[in-house]
TrEMBL record:
<feature type="binding site">
    <location>
        <position position="886"/>
    </location>
    <ligand>
        <name>Mg(2+)</name>
    </ligand>
</feature>
<dbReference type="InterPro" id="IPR001757">
    <property type="entry name" value="P_typ_ATPase"/>
</dbReference>
<dbReference type="InterPro" id="IPR032631">
    <property type="entry name" value="P-type_ATPase_N"/>
</dbReference>
<keyword id="KW-1133">Transmembrane helix</keyword>
<feature type="binding site">
    <location>
        <position position="726"/>
    </location>
    <ligand>
        <name>ATP</name>
    </ligand>
</feature>
<keyword id="KW-1278">Translocase</keyword>
<feature type="transmembrane region" description="Helical">
    <location>
        <begin position="1026"/>
        <end position="1050"/>
    </location>
</feature>
<dbReference type="InterPro" id="IPR036412">
    <property type="entry name" value="HAD-like_sf"/>
</dbReference>
<feature type="binding site">
    <location>
        <position position="449"/>
    </location>
    <ligand>
        <name>ATP</name>
    </ligand>
</feature>
<dbReference type="InterPro" id="IPR006539">
    <property type="entry name" value="P-type_ATPase_IV"/>
</dbReference>
<feature type="binding site">
    <location>
        <position position="727"/>
    </location>
    <ligand>
        <name>ATP</name>
    </ligand>
</feature>
<dbReference type="Pfam" id="PF16212">
    <property type="entry name" value="PhoLip_ATPase_C"/>
</dbReference>
<feature type="region of interest" description="Disordered">
    <location>
        <begin position="1"/>
        <end position="46"/>
    </location>
</feature>
<feature type="transmembrane region" description="Helical">
    <location>
        <begin position="1062"/>
        <end position="1081"/>
    </location>
</feature>
<feature type="binding site">
    <location>
        <position position="549"/>
    </location>
    <ligand>
        <name>ATP</name>
    </ligand>
</feature>
<dbReference type="GO" id="GO:0005524">
    <property type="term" value="F:ATP binding"/>
</dbReference>
<feature type="domain" description="P-type ATPase A">
    <location>
        <begin position="168"/>
        <end position="232"/>
    </location>
</feature>
Length: 1247
């Protein structure tokens, strides 16, 4: 079934194949490029201008540390204190040291309004006139809260110290005092010469000077930077390579490097080296970047250009943002609300006290206290007294309880064995303890592709040769099997034992050598490539420019056609049982326009043959009319594409010697062309790559990580949208979109040009009718896609800039600024925004359009663009976002999102170190969100609702009591009860609910993803819930005060005495409160364990234990002024009617709650209630499902083909042809060649 595509044919726009401009592009660079945009007379030849010394701000002198501390390189840091502008190489991510921990931590804690409020309260309690509570009732909880938070911060910071210390203390060899000495990374400085060996990490951004490989070639693995494991190569200048091999030569090296300022551009470097009176240009090919790893190079030497915080990898980290959850923000607003409520209540009671004193207090002789204070002044003192008495409305222990719950939830994530990846011994890791409940509110996920959704491992799965398809399980005789056995490669001593192939028939045909086309097929795969080979411990190790090409050469190797070695103009392979060497006459490398590569070889018998492989769309156009098996191969390609395999066509052509000689002359002329050389070469390549004979097609699987399609499907059911943001090519990203079921055949796909057109139309409508936007402001935006059906968006970085006016506006502004005039207002036709408001509206339109789509894929985007896309959704949708990635190019995106997740796979740890959560496989994301995130959200909401309720119920008893105490700030409870209420009597049960509660178990949470929706909607904790808790607390406080109050009126004990004193009332009310709040949390507990039961009963037992102890005569004798309730508890609690009063109070307090819960679960059940009701049934179904074998994932049909050829990057052809990777180093060096630098154009795909 062919998918639908929305096209705008013929539209002009950005090149989808290239990465857009970097976001660190300087104004100078933009001005320079803007100049090029001005119209020039035809025929003018542009000569690149050499940068003036004054414009170059970064100077590095080799082997001269004092040079970098000269006054001209100093910068002011504070007042007259200056330091060198060149960073040291030590990195620092920790916050505190021994001296700053205490003051800085206390400063940070007191930035919290609640802590500052309680500090002010403590100061008020020291004032005798207004103190109604002893100072220790506030000091003890405040000290406990500050201490617990400080200990947690200290533990977190010690972990950062350890990580920094480990990195800073890594060892490398630095040239000091004329010889190489072992030194720590932290001691490296700009201008040092460093020696690196194979498998060493590069400690700083360095200029490659020389290496042990021919022509200063150095291979690096950039996994830490971009998540790609295929090797890139770097080249030193020829002059440094030839003159800087020995230690004494390096010690005498005194070049001056002038280059760009430190920036975050991973794709660009510009500089100049001045040495011995000559100037040599420098670019990115000459640079070894920090975070990369040296591979296939025994030793190399580099000069440190940028160190520490100035390195590109550190600059790419983006700004570290302080992340807070939505619940945190809501909680703070609620604390402010409580504070306002407290002020209003205190003010009202203070006014009441003023009137009461004027009417009653001043006229009652028995209330005279010997002070001649006015009623107004007494009311003023009463206001502050009630601020102290009612302070528990602002719960001091709230924040520390939240921190304890979050810490526990983080530990559960760390201990979850179902998120442990045994293959790499990698457990899940919660690297922050402050964001757990936010995991239960995610609406948008932004994911990288390479290494996150895919394993970045290519496998040769199937092929078609002469119209016959191979790859399904078969016997050697060709009998198809349902389940086959992998091919036994014991017959091939060169075979890669990890390579698996199920079709024994193809192996038998190749070994029999009776099928000429099969022989040619694998011979082509072993010869037509740009792979490098290394012999390591009698093993062949292939290094390819892309994993696709490595997979094809490995397949040929296992089938008996083994690539052994190559020189500048020969290739040697092992053909079954003999070695053969072919002369390479020309190598026509791959590029994104050609979508194919060819090689012209001279066979040992003198024949000349061209082998070609490429996309079927370009190969079929160039086939000879006499080529066979076109239709059958086309059918096979369709079948392979339906299985989302990456396909490639193989063909050949025999060339006569005369034809080759004529073509070779044209080829040489094109190579020497001074202008438009690439286009000239492409034209020459076209002449030879025609009338080809088709051999067959290959099918490679870009292996997804396990469980990716299932995870995406499950997250979609939870209404979580997944956007893929990748630096890969458009076709590659689209192919993976189909593989992981993000894209389906029933979706209509919209590309950049189509999106731009729709947005422009909407913008024109708005301009033509300005009043329409005002009229429709309150109405929902009109949808962009009015046709029924699903939509998907695939957009490149270039189009993203075009649509959001990111680049054109800046270039235009700079060009006009250079001309010395202000930009005129844009006309509606010029495609520019009229003002910032219109630009913002354009961004809103884009976000609205993207959010209408089922899937969004952004490809060829820079790290900054990834972060910008996340920011747009956060800003305009007010949505909770999560970013997940595995490389340094994902760090900015990870830091920008509300939650950042790092994949700790084989691609390095840069993303993990910047993330909030880390694990090894994408599939663990569903468990992190649907289980841990949902549970954390439910637990935190339940905890907060209950916490506010129990504090209102406790505090407002003082309010009711004030009506009977002349509003005199008298407390209704014993002061020790007030001190210990939140610390001992009611804290443990609610903490355990916050840690352990779950409405349904983890398996049912995954089975029913729709249970996740309440978190996204924020229905479990909001202002409505807050006011429900407030009124619930008011109701309970009313019952707890007035029922004991009524019971104490005109009562008589069984001993003839009436225990109707204030202290007995305080004990009865306190006991009723403790029973009520502990039984209330029992009603709210969904998941009972022994620990919960112990906590509820234990809290009640602790209350009675402490009360009887504090009310004993012994402790009163020791501290007569502190413990004043002597014998009250034992006296009051032996009265049966007081126990009846307590039971009645608790019963009336809980009865409405029980009734409401019953009605909710029977009449208005939530999704969670429904699942709980049939829990046993669903659990049995899950057990049955686990017993059955899971069916194989069925791939959907589609028509995209040749994704390999679209996605494959340029290879090492230029490098091979130049011989720089093969030639041996000359033993004796003569004078310098005329051409100092040979720039190799072949480079692997960038970010």
């Amino acid at each position: 079934m062919s998918r639908r595509r929305a096209d705008s044919q013929g539209s002009l726009g950005p090149d989808d194949e290239v990465m857009p401009y970097s976001d660190d592009e300087t104004d100078d660079e933009l001005e320079a490029s803007s100049e090029g945009e001005a119209e020039e007379p035809p025929g003018v030849v542009h000569v690149p201008a050499e940068a003036k010394p004054s414009e170059i701000g970064w100077k590095v002198k080799a082997n001269d540390r004092p040079y970098h501390h000269m006054p001209e390189f100093q910068k002011k840091i504070f007042l007259c204190i200056k330091k060198s502008r060149y960073s040291g190489n030590a990195i620092r991510t920790y916050k505190y040291n021994v001296l700053t921990f205490l003051p800085l931590n206390l400063y940070e804690q007191f930035k919290r309004v609640a802590n500052l409020y309680f500090l002010a309260l403590l100061i008020l309690q020291i004032v005798p006139d207004i103190s109604t509570l002893p100072w220790y009732t506030t000091l003890i909880p405040l000290v406990v809260v500050l201490a617990i938070t400080a200990i947690k911060d200290l533990v977190d910071d010690l972990a950062r110290h350890r990580m920094d210390k480990e990195i800073n203390n890594r060892k490398c060899e630095v040239l000091l005092n004329g010889r190489f000495q072992e030194s720590k990374w932290m001691d490296i400085q700009v201008g040092d010469v460093v020696r690196l060996k194979k498998n060493d990490f590069i400690p700083a951004d360095m200029l490659l000077l020389s290496s042990s490989n021919p022509n200063s070639l150095c291979y690096v693995e950039t996994a830490e930077l971009d998540g790609e494991t295929n090797l890139k190569f770097k080249l030193g200048l020829r002059v440094t390579d030839e003159r800087l091999q020995e230690q004494h030569q390096l010690a005498e090296f005194d070049a001056l490097i002038e280059c760009e300022e430190p920036n975050n551009r991973l794709d660009k470097f510009t500089g100049t080296m001045r040495w011995q009176g000559e100037r040599y240009p420098l670019d990115l090919d000459n640079m070894l970047l920090r975070g990369c790893k040296i591979r296939n190079t025994e030793t190399c030497h580099g000069l440190v250009i940028f160190a520490g915080a100035d390195t590109k990898i550190m600059r790419n980290g983006g700004k570290t943002r302080f992340k807070r959850t939505k619940i945190d923000e809501l909680m703070n607003y609620m604390v402010y609300t409580i504070f306002v409520l407290l002020l209003m209540v205190s003010l009202g009671l203070a006014i009441g006290h003023g009137f009461w004193y004027q009417d009653i207090g001043s006229k009652s002789w028995y209330l005279f206290d010997g002070k001649s204070q006015s009623a107004a002044y007494r009311g003023f003192l009463s206001f502050w007294g009630y601020i102290i008495v009612l302070n528990t409305m602002v719960p001091i222990s709230l924040y520390v309880s939240v921190e304890v719950i979050r810490l526990g939830q983080s530990k559960f994530i760390n201990w979850d064995l179902q998120m442990y990846y045994a293959e790499k011994d990698t457990p899940a890791k919660a690297r922050t303890t402050t964001l757990n409940e936010q995991l239960g509110q995610i609406e948008y996920i932004f994911s990288d592709k390479t290494g996150t959704l895919t394993q970045n491992i290519m496998q040769f799965k199937k092929c078609s040769i002469s119209g016959h398809s191979y790859g399904d399980p078969t016997t050697a005789e060709g009998v198809s099997l349902d389940r086959g056995r992998p091919v036994d490669w014991e017959w091939n001593r060169y075979a890669d034992k990890k390579f698996q192939f199920m079709d024994n028939c193809l192996v038998a045909r190749v070994r029999a050598r009776k099928d000429k086309d099969a022989t040619e097929f694998f011979k082509l795969l072993s010869l037509c490539h740009t792979v490098m080979v290394e012999h390591k411990d009698d093993e062949l190790v292939y290094q390819a420019a892309s994993p696709d090409e490595g997979a094809l050469v490995t397949a040929a190797r296992n089938f008996g056609y083994v690539f052994l070695s190559r020189t500048q103009d020969t290739i040697t392979i092992w053909e079954m049982d003999q070695e053969a060497t072919y002369e390479m006459l020309a190598l026509l490398d791959f590029n994104s326009d050609r979508k194919r590569m060819s090689i012209i070889l001279k066979f040992p018998d003198g024949r000349i043959r061209l082998y070609c492989k490429g996309a079927d769309t370009v190969i079929y156009e160039r086939l000879s009319p006499s080529s066979r098996h076109r239709d059958t191969t086309q059918t096979a390609l369709d079948l392979f594409a339906n299985e989302t395999l990456r396909t490639l066509c193989l063909c050949y052509k025999d060339i006569s010697i005369d034809d080759y000689n004529a073509w070779a002359r044209k080829h040489k002329e094109a190579q020497l062309a001074l202008s438009d050389r690439d286009a000239a070469l492409d034209r020459v390549y076209e002449e030879i790559e025609k009338d080809l004979m088709l051999i067959g097609a290959t099918a490679i699987e870009d292996k997804l990580q396990d469980g990716v399609p299932e995870t995406i499907a499950k997250l979609a059911k939870a209404d979580i949208k997944l956007w893929v943001l990748t630096g890969d090519k458009k076709e590659t990203a689209e192919n993976i979109g189909y593989s992981c079921s993000l894209l389906t055949d029933d979706m209509k796909i919209h590309y950049g040009e189509d999106v731009n057109e729709k947005l422009t139309v909407r913008q024109s409508q708005r301009r033509n009718d300005p009043t329409a936007s005002l009229r429709n402001k309150k109405k929902p935006a009109e949808p962009f896609f009015t046709e029924p059906g699903k939509n998907a968006l695939i957009i490149t970085g270039g189009w993203l800039n075009e649509i959001l006016y990111e680049k054109k506006k800046k270039r235009r502004r700079l060009r006009l600024r250079r001309l010395g005039r202000r930009p005129p207002p844009s006309s509606p036709q010029d495609g520019q925004p009229l003002n910032d408001k219109e630009k913002e509206q354009r961004q809103i339109d884009f976000v609205n359009m993207a959010c209408e789509c089922e899937s969004v894929i952004c490809c060829r985007v820079t790290p900054k663009q990834k972060a910008n896309v996340v920011s747009l959704v956060k800003k305009y949708k007010k949505a909770v976002t999560l970013s997940i990635g595995d490389g340094a190019n994902d760090v900015n995106m990870i830091k920008t999102a509300d939650i950042g997740v790092g994949i700790s796979g084989q691609e390095g740890m840069q993303a993990v170190m910047s993330s909030d959560y880390a694990f090894a496989q994408f599939r663990y994301l569903q468990r992190l969100l649907l289980v841990h995130g949902r549970w954390s959200y439910i637990r935190m909401c339940k905890f907060l609702r209950y916490f506010f309720f129990k504090n209102f119920a406790f505090t407002l008893v003082h309010f009711w009591y004030s009506f009977f105490s002349g509003y005199s700030s008298q407390i209704a409870f014993e002061d020790w009860f007030i001190t210990l209420y939140n610390l001992c009597y009611s804290s443990l049960p609610v903490l355990l609910v916050g840690l352990l509660d779950q409405d349904v178990n983890d398996k049912l949470s995954l089975k029913f993803p729709q249970l996740y929706l309440p978190g996204q909607q924020g229905t479990l904790f909001n202002y409505k819930n807050f006011f429900v808790s407030l009124f619930h607390g008011i109701f309970v406080s009313l019952i707890i005060f007035f029922i004991p109050y009524g019971a104490f009126l005109q009562t008589m004990g069984q001993d003839g005495e009436a225990p109707s004193d204030y202290q007995s009332f305080a004990v009865v009310a306190a006991t009723s409160l403790i029973f009520t709040v502990n039984l209330q949390i029992s009603l709210d507990t969904s998941f009972w364990t022994f620990v919960n039961c112990f906590a509820v009963l234990g809290s009640i037992a602790i209350y009675f234990g402490i009360v009887f102890d504090f009310h004993s005569g012994g402790i009163h004798v020791i501290f007569p002024s502190v413990f004043t309730f002597t014998g009250v508890a034992s006296n009051a609690l032996r009265q049966p009617y007081l126990w009846l009063t307590i039971i009645l109070t608790v019963g009336i307090s809980l009865l409405p709650v029980i009734c409401i819960q019953f009605l909710h679960k029977t009449i208005w059940p939530s999704e969670g209630d429904k699942v709980q009701k049939y829990r046993k049934k669903y659990e049995l179904e899950l057990q049955e499902e686990e017993k059955k074998k899971a069916p194989a994932f069925q791939r959907g049909g589609r028509s995209r083909r040749s994704s390999y050829a679209f996605s494959h990057s340029r290879g090492y052809a230029d490098l091979i042809a130049s011989g720089r990777s093969i030639r041996r180093r000359p033993q004796a060096r003569g004078g310098l060649p005329s051409s100092i630098r040979e720039a190799a154009q072949g480079e692997a795909e960038n970010l």
